[in-house]
Amino acid sequence: MIMSGFFRLSVWQNFFRAWKSGYSGNLEGEGFTLGGVYVIGAGRQGVLLEHREKEFGDKVSLQSVLEAAEKIKPQAS
């Protein structure tokens, strides 16, 4: 995974996109763990959105997060 990340054009494109927008990171931690975003509804609604990074810099769409959050129904008490 480490070496394949260095050879992928899309990883370098994501790096330069982040660098141009001013993101520098803190250079702490291992740096090779991919992340993800989950939006989980109340009660039995379950997972409304799941996004797992497939490569370094793979971002979730803010619009899809907002749409999933709007689908959360309050749980009856």
Automatic annotation (TrEMBL):
Question: GO MF terms on file?
Answer: antioxidant activity
Organism expressing this protein natively: Psophia crepitans
Write down the InterPro entries for this protein, in alphabetical order.
Answer: PXL2A/B/C
Keyword list, A-Z: Antioxidant, Cytoplasm, Redox-active center
The principal location of this protein is cytoplasm
- Family note: Belongs to the peroxiredoxin-like PRXL2 family. PRXL2A subfamily.
Upper lineage is:
Eukaryota, Metazoa, Chordata, Craniata, Vertebrata
GO terms under cellular component:
cytoplasm
Where found? Cytoplasm
Instruction: Provide the protein name.
Output: Peroxiredoxin-like 2A
